[in-house]
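In this supplementary section we document a worked example of the pipeline. Step one takes a protein sequence of length 494 as its only input; no multiple sequence alignment statistics are reported here. Step two produces a three-dimensional model, which step three serialises into structure tokens for compact storage. The input and output of this example are shown verbatim.
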Amino acid sequence: MANAAQIVAAFRDVAATKSLSDEEMADLVKDGILAGLARIYGATVQAEIDIDEDTGDFDIVVLRRVVEEVEDPATEISLEEARWDDETFEVGDVMEIPVDFAAFGRNAVMAVKQRIVQRVRENERDRIREEFADRIGELLSGELQQIERGKLVVMLNRARDAEAIIPWKDQNPRERFRQGDPIRAVLKKVEETPKGPRLILSRADPLFVSALFKLEVPEIYQGIVEIREISREVGGRTKIAVYSRDESIDPVGACVGLKGSRVQAVVNELGGERIDIVPWHPDPEVFARRALAPARVSKVLSDSERQVITAIVDEDQLSLAIGRNGQNVRLASQLIGWQIDLYGSREWLERGSELAMFSDAPSEDQYETADFPLSELELRPLVLAALSGAGYDTFLQIIDLERRDFLKIEGIGEEDADRLLQLIDELTVMEGEASSEGDGDEEDAEEASASAEDAEDADAGDASEAVSAANERTGESVAVAAEEASDDEGKSGA
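The serialised model returned by step three reads:
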């Protein structure tokens, strides 16, 4: 049957276009022919359909049960009518009626076509739903097909039959596209519509920035570097917090790349949007200090119950910490997940804060309190073993011990105790330890005054020696104190 062979060939072309297997194609043809038979005999018709893939012939047989009284003409036939064909039929037998496909009328052929088209669309919808359901957050590329009432209709490169759009709220207002432009976006969600699944893409979601870094940074793709937190204001600024599972790999450096090549590629895709990359930290105070970069924070206080961070910065850093229209502090708050209350040093002092905390702002590392194993210190193996035997394995466990405490540990000698105290002094910074020069001068002056009082109680020779000793200890500070005293006497005399 030439027509049947042509139909099968056409079906195979459709199957190849729609990515259908041979079994799915055969099911489509059988289902379509069954729909055509239903148009001829009735909706409940039963039939056996075989397709010869080599010749393209259809073997169609309609099955009808022999009964005394016909209730369903589509599946039943009267005994009298059955015996017209064969007198041996009895009630309950099944009569096989061969049907020639060429006998299908126009209505039957249209029914076959509609059923096949419907089945093809259903298969496409199921395939798209299964393919993209697990790809949320993945970067997809395609071509801008048209702009329809503000939304961008995208034809994906690897799924041209999928309906994909970028709504207005998921677009970057600083970007402009034309029909036919290549475009990349992240899959935000799969939305069900009466016409089937619709892919909602986004270029404004923080997932888009994350997907771009995954594309540009091999360490993120391999899972060595992880983007822990991300906050974004579309077209303005993005902050991301990164963490490295490998201590030998700097997460920030991996994202920036050689001469900034990696981060610059992301910035170009975002249309010049600024990106701040900071290392993630589990301590909210340290994390908040880093999140407020590029501003330098003088002091951080936290309230874990209310999840509020109070950050104090010097006056020259206040505008940098706030950012344009409060953007920097707002993104930092979103990044750490806590509320950030930002104060300038002057405003905080008016609230009754201590002046000492606003000396020259130390570096970030001075404020960080991070425990680490003692094996990272330059200690002899025997000393490490002795400390471990006594239950001391980390730095914070020995930070408050004194020399006599170390000497009580078996295996720790005097030199080892001195070495441990030296390391603790080098690695420990106490807040308020650094004082201004004026405070130091006052302390020296007080020391000199005390020495002079001691000299008055002694005899003249001892007093001279005491004053000389005081001068040697205080040095220039005594001279400064003496000058200030003479100035005060002159003013009093005047």
